């Protein structure tokens, strides 16, 4: 099928051809014969078209006649609910056509806009020409209506019949030309659909540019999903507005002609006046914006965390009892109110700007009064309407600079990403040189993260294909940076070299998609069941899959939240292996697993006959016993690499005695399908959809009765004033309905200016009061309520919620509710008052019009109910799902860009984004069809009412000699339309409210109904201030599970820990070790049994009292954006000296004394201006978000420093030293022994050496206590712990 642009161009061409045939063949003179000739020749022209063109014309006629919307309504009524039932290929064709023509040349100014125009110009040009033609026809139709009013001057008997015949012809022509209105809306919808496809393409292209090639870290602030969505949305709107301005510029020729022909040079008055006021208003607005930006540019940043950051790090907040820190965080939505004088100036000039059209028209009419000229009422209407349109266009022209500014913001984001591509990276040749024996070659290569940032000194190294390279070094020495440099992720400064072959990469902190287990492993590759099972077995995931509710079809939560650290690491390893790469870059994959699994991974993956034994492997490790297996050992020291070649020892296969702990049977549950495998939940799916007064009443209660009552009173007073002003206007028109003399014109001018100024000022005042009294307070209440509700949720329930949905509720839904709902309610209240006032006025003037209006409203209501039900479902359900899926995918792609790029899966995720974007554009088209359907039905009924009133009045004038004048007819028509609009607005009150009731219901679901934790403080059951003073911990028949539909993770535990004991907790992956820490902190409540600490049952006290008395260093160290001091002591409970003392004991003084580089956030309108900042050193050293300017090991040391600073009686170390080297581990164990000797310490570890000097060892197995005794006794017993130690020693001895 031909492209859509070609189809649209073919249609008018054949219509012109048809009209030319009619003009050449028609010789009839009577209207009936002419009409028949037109139809006949139209049929002839239709038959001359080819099949494709006929299909194209039929499709567009189908759209113009609103049959698309009718089809969708019928489909919905028949029970079709899938988006596929409503889709067509329009969006796909448009998107594909634009993508093919979209290419960037960053050397030119406005290169993005150039590329966009190049992609959309053929289609937009045709549509714009059509819209210009339709705009002119619409202007002519309005002019024709005024001529119809002119026919109501009392006719002369000599030519009354001729005038009446002309009148009838004009009515028919005016009615026929109505087709231009739905056609124009259809064309506008096509333009809007094109712009929406362009918006999605632009957003996807920016993401693609980001993930295709490496970008500097400075681009991270420009490329995040929220910034992209916001920036491209404004770009789309601005470009659409510029296109509409260009169309209006041409179509305004008609109005210019009308005004100039009537008033001559006076046409310049409204143009110059409105341009001056609009310019002044924009100047004041720019001053206000500049003040806000200046206030937001803080030189000394505070510890303020975004809501997105809070959501992502909720686990750490719970562990550290930091809810009250974030509950009062005011940076979730920073607002700066300008000074009152700026607000007053802004209000005054914006009022004058909005009324400038009427004032300038009044000024022009005043000159006519000064000349002593009268004017007919019809002429007055013509001049007024033409001038208002011309002035409106002038005002829009003045806004063009701000629209261009929105274009520049996206241009800037693209420019930054493309410029970052100019940075040189380590090259990789995926398909070249594979026959060569060389996998990696580096010759004097020096890498750095940027000027004055961490760098890797000149390194020369050659890695042959199939070699095993091990990388070791202290914390922060540059091990991970070296791997990223080889993978092409760290900029190269000098030297040469390359990588030959594809890469499989496992990061130190694994990135896991929110998808099923299987989707995470195959990662866009074809599913090969045999190889898949082999990979699962090699990565020791067989038993783990058997424990998952739906096997490998189980959904894995955001960042692998429902898996253990070891499971996440092995899942990421399986993904890299399944990619069938040539070179594997593995960053510390052994630190998160126990000795048995470590041996399994070495035997089945890395060495011996492992699945990667013949591939090139580069492994960062702290396990020194693995080093002899390597061909080279690279030792990193502060960015300098020392390379030692060696002959690898032969790997000794582990004995069966030790291997029985890791199952090798392929009994993975890979085909189970069950809802139990769904991790992410959507609480809003169970909320009621129909209109509910209860929800609306809850909203009013939330808003505050006083604020709502004040708004109602203001609306009533405003309506009362405007009603009297409108009555005066009507009476003046009725009194001078044929000709306005000078005195009447003076009164008309004064009354018109007064009415417009008062109406605008009242509207401004209403809006200002509503923003101050209702909207602003409501937004703050909603924010506080949401944050409080989320902070005190059960962590297990919170982590199952979609993070993108929570973001949407906090930002989009809250914004809609806080600002749109009060506005809509105020509008509806205003409409109700005006409708009552209008009905009273209509009854006084013409009761017949009211009856006709009621008939029209009944017709509209019938169609509206059908349309609304379908539209509400499609937008609130299907549309929100499509939007959520695309948002989730975009967020995942941005977060995992390194993995996607290094695994060469950019094209896979580009395809997924494209498919979701096309679905989103289809939903946009469907919604626009529905909206256009309603507007067209309203316009049809309104025009029918106008025609009926005009014909009825003419009938009374001709046959009953009743006096009618242009003014009187215009007033009656106006009253009729006013009645229809008012009654219709009242009748669809529930429908319009329902459009915002859906987000309102979602808000109440997410702010009131989510599962909450138990009380944080129980006033009548608070522990003593010095509790716990002994540190005695007792588990008594304790059982726990994370959800009711899951198995127990802790089963009938009973053991006691004496005060000041050092307890090592060991066990295989999934044995329940980390669950013990969650049980102690009551992250999960017990199903039976209890935990007693120093004689107090922890279930009887508040959660805050419990968690504030226990320190924990979690497995995943978390740092927030802020200074080192604020990260260590956000509650400001300690002095600087105490903090420095803790830093020195943990031996990280040299780390915090290294200054953070200049941290500059550019002033893009996509983002809040937040800089530049120059961070200091020591306690004022700036910690970037997620602590990215620290290594993972350094983040763990900072977490340990927190525990040392707090020095609570009970300390939990959950794999706290997993990511640090053995020497640093020894130092940390010494710190723990010396500084926490008077504390009870529970040490969860995979490294058995870490716990061998503990007082006792607790061995966990399948959620139960397998062994609990001193290390020496356990070794003597020869039980499970002895096997673990034997396995560790065997690994060290035999490798």
TrEMBL record:
InterPro entries: AAA+_ATPase, ABC1_TM_sf, ABC_transporter-like_ATP-bd, ABC_transporter-like_CS, ABC_transporter_C-like, P-loop_NTPase. It is a multi-pass membrane protein. The chain crosses the membrane at residues 702-723, 835-860. Pfam families: ABC_tran. Residues 440-663, 1033-1287 form the ABC transporter domain. This is Multidrug resistance-associated protein 1. The keyword 4Fe-4S does not apply. Keywords: ATP-binding, Membrane, Nucleotide-binding, Repeat, Transmembrane, Transmembrane helix. It comes from Coemansia umbellata. It is found in: Vacuole membrane.
